[in-house]
Design a protein that fits this description.
Layout: E1 3-12, E2 15-25, E3 30-34, H1 41-48, E4 56-61, H2 70-73, E5 76-79, H3 91-101, H4 107-116, H5 130-144, E6 148-152, H6 160-176, E7 180-184, H7 188-191, E8 197-202, E9 205-211, H8 212-218, E10 219-225, H9 226-233, E11 237-244, E12 247-253, H10 256-261, E13 265-268, H11 271-280, E14 287-288
Parallel strand pairs: 3-7, 3-8, 5-6, 6-7, 9-14
Antiparallel strand pairs: 1-2, 1-4, 8-9, 10-12, 10-13, 11-12
Helix pairs in contact: 4-5
Bound molecules: adenosine-5'-triphosphate.
C-alpha cells in the first residue's frame, strides 16, 4: 500500500507536533521511524492509523484518507507502547476481537506466539505484567498481517531475550510475506540492521529519509590536518565535525574512495552510531531523499 504524506501539520495548544511534513512510503519495507522524545513520531503514526486528524495537510493510503475509513483501518494495525487493550478482557477475547477485525489475521501464528511468549489465554489484560502486555501487543501486531503494521516502542517491560525473539519472528514473517512495517524505537542499536529505510523526525520536521544501505555505504569519517579536511569537505555534506590539536574529523556523506585518494584517513561509521548521532544531534543535516 502506498502512503503519501502531504504537508502534514498537527498543532496542539502550544505545540506543533508535526510541522509541514511531506514524504512517501511507496513500497512494502521495514521503515525505521526515529527521533528524540517529542519529535512527532507517535503523532504521525496516529494520523496514519486514522485515530486522529491532521490540523493541515493529509495522509493518503492508496489515495484515500484513513480517518473513519473502515476499508483502510482494517489494513492498518498500530501497536503502541502500552494500553493497547481493554483491561477487563481476557487474552483469548482480545485475540478474538482482532481476528474478527483483520481480514488478514493469521490464527496459526497467533497460537504459536502465545505459546512462545507463554501467555495464558484466560488471563485478564489487567493481570498481565508490563512485559506480558507488550508481548500480547506484539502477537496482535504480527498476527494481524495487516499490510501496514506499525510498532511504536512496543516492548516496554520485555527483557532482551524476549525482544530478540520479537525481532527474529518479525524478520521471518516479513521475509515470508513482505508488508509495510513502520518501527519506532529508541533502542536503535538493537534494531538498526533490520531497517531498510530510515526516517528521522526532529521537532516536528522530517530531517532525513534514506535507504539504510545508502547510509551504510556512504557515511564515513574522514580525519587529517584541519586545513586538508576542511578543503576536502568544502563541497560535501558534513553532518558533524570535531577538532583536536590541529587535527580534524568530519563525518560526511559521499564517496569514500575520493577521501582515500586525498590522503586522508577514512573510516566507515556503523549504522547504529550514525542513526544515534543523527537522532541525538540538534540540527542534523537535512538529507531528504527526493
Ligand atoms: N494529545 C496531546 N496534547 C498535547 N500535546 C501533545 C499531545 N500529543 C502529543 N503532544 C505533544 O506533541 C509533541 C510530539 O509528541 P509525539 O508523542 O508525537 O512525539 P514522539 O516523537 O512520539 O515522542 P516519544 O519518543 O517521546 O514517544 C510533544 O511535544 C508532545 O508533548
Amino acid at each position: 500500500m502506498k502512503i503519501e504524506v502531504n504537508h502534514v501539520s498537527k498543532a496542539y495548544k502550544d505545540t506543533k507536533a508535526l510541522d509541514d511534513v511531506s514524504f512517501a512510503l511507496s513500497e512494502p519495507k521495514i521503515y525505521g521511524l526515529l527521533g528524540r522524545n517529542g519529535a512527532g513520531k507517535t503523532t504521525f503514526m496516529e494520523i496514519l492509523s486514522g485515530h486522529i486528524l491532521a490540523s493541515e495537510g493529509e495522509i493518503l493510503v492508496d489515495g484515500e484518507k484513513p480517518f473513519d475509513n473502515q476499508r483502510l483501518t482494517e489494513s492498518i494495525c498500530l501497536i503502541k507502547e502500552g494500553d493497547n487493550f481493554k483491561k477487563d478482557l481476557k487474552v483469548k477475547n482480545v485475540l478474538k476481537i482482532y481476528a474478527y477485525f483483520y481480514p488478514t489475521w493469521d490464527q496459526k501464528l497467533a497460537d504459536e506466539l502465545i505459546r512462545e511468549y507463554n501467555l495464558s489465554l484466560n488471563a485478564k489484560v489487567k493481570t498481565l505484567s508490563k512485559g506480558m502486555a507488550s508481548a500480547l501487543g506484539i502477537i496482535v501486531g504480527l498476527a494481524s498481517k495487516a499490510p501496514i503494521t506499525i510498532f511504536d516502542e512496543p516492548y516496554i517491560g520485555l527483557d532482551a531475550a524476549a525482544r530478540k525473539k520479537f525481532y527474529d519472528i518479525l524478520l521471518e514473517e516479513y521475509e515470508a510475506e513482505k508488508r509495510t512495517i513502520i518501527f519506532s524505537t529508541h533502542l536503535i542499536d538493537e534494531v538498526s540492521l533490520m531497517f531498510e529505510e530510515v526516517l528521522i523526525l526532529q521537532e516536528g520536521k522530517l530531517v532525513l529519509q534514506e535507504e539504510a544501505d545508502t547510509l551504510r555505504e556512504h557515511a564515513y569519517a574522514v580525519s587529517g590536518p584541519i586545513q586538508d579536511v576542511e578543503q576536502f569537505t568544502s563541497d560535501k555534506e558534513v553532518f558533524q565535525s570535531k577538532q583536536l590539536a590541529g587535527m580534524m574529523t568530519a563525518y560526511v556523506f559521499g564517496n569514500m574512495v575520493q577521501a582515500e585518494s586525498a590522503g586522508l584517513t577514512v573510516e566507515s561509521i556503523p549504522i547504529q552510531e550514525l542513526m544515534i548521532y543523527l537522532t541525538e544531534k540538534e540540527g542534523a543535516a537535512r538529507h531528504v531523499a527526493s
